[in-house]
What we know:
- By secondary structure, the protein is α/β, with parallel strands linked by helices.
- The chain has helices at about 20-30, 80-90, 105-115, 130-135, 145-150, 170-175, 180-185, 190-210, 235-245, 265-270, 285-290, 300, 325, 330-340; strands spanning about 5-10, 40, 50-55, 60-70, 75, 95-100, 120, 140-145, 160-165, 215-220, 220-225, 225-230, 245-250, 260, 275-280, 305, 355.
- It has 2 domains: about 5-200, Nitrogenase molybdenum iron protein domain (Rossmann fold), CATH 3.40.50.1980; about 210-355, Rossmann fold (3-Layer(aba) Sandwich), CATH 3.40.50.1980.
- The protein contains 14 helices and 17 strands.
- The strands form 4 sheets. A 5-stranded parallel beta sheet has the order 7-6-5-8-9, sandwiched between helices. Strands 13-10-15-16-17 form a 5-stranded mixed beta sheet, with helices on one face.
- The longest helix has 23 residues, at about 190-210.
- The chain is globular and about 60 Å long.
- The model is unreliable at about 1-10 and about 10-30 (pLDDT under 50).
Amino acid sequence: MKRFAFFVLIIACFCSCNRASQTQETTQVSSDNIFKYAKNIYCRPGSDTVVVYCDWNNSKDTLVYCLHDIKSNSIAVISTTDIAMLAELGATDKITGICDPFRTTNPQVQERVKQGLVQNVGTSMETNIEALVALNPDLVITSAYNNLDLKKYQHIKCPIVFTTSWQENTPLARIEWIKFVGMLIGKMHEADSVFAEIEKKYLALKSRADSVDTKPLVLAGAASNDIWYMPGGKSYVAQFIADAGGKFIWADDENTGSVVLNFEQVLHASQNADCWIGCDEKSYAELDAMNKNYKLLDVYKKKAIYNRSKRSFPNGGNDYWEYGYVRPDIVLADYMKIIHPELLPDYETVFLEKLAE
């Protein structure tokens, strides 16, 4: 597989696909899949065909990529998470177009932007199709958030890869998509090695946390006005908390995405919580300015609130959403340091930090 550098895209079941049959198909192929954690992608060992599953609100679509030998020296990357995957594979020199250049935290890409080697092709919410056409890269990698995204790029003549790693509900499943990125740029062997090392470190940390007797109660998510967006009980955030030896206050929920709650529900559910991990504010003063109700939370009174902004920058970039995406082992270590500091006495967090008083 490492020799393949490009692909032909076939869209199967474009508008809709029976949910039951799709679920059955995914289950059937999982036993011979090179992806052992990711549920939204399939490739048989030794095959040159990769299947990506897209789960929309009203349908399930299937994208089939047939890989073959064509150069990929110029890549437009729409999501910062894919910038991070290319960086892990030592391929930032292939990146020639990105959205929201100010948001990337990768120093090599930032320098290439300054030198004019990387062009701005829009925003994370709205790609500039004209700029993308003018750039004419060998490959475009983008996340598919709905089936309209599949139609938006239909006038682009260069190959488009749509990924759905964001729909995976475990940290290791999300980073395992680096194998697919490795296939696209002819670095499958390197991608396998990178993933294996991250997996090893992650599981070693998890094993250490599995030995604890107590599981501190953890609040997650954040409020916008009077609405609290709580990670679902089957989300990757819930997995981080569990793997770090904590007990998530919303663990019994069955959702993989965010759950919309009112503040009163959160106030009741988070009584006696030991900590809150997941706000973006850096101080209690900033937190107060965002929502005066935060003061009512037990974790506020305990001054046990931690943000994800230790590696954020004034221009809007936050490395938690870039490098942190591809290094779940480091993120897990951060969670463990907060939830069970006795397990990592000499460790200093990378992405998470306690709010300044």
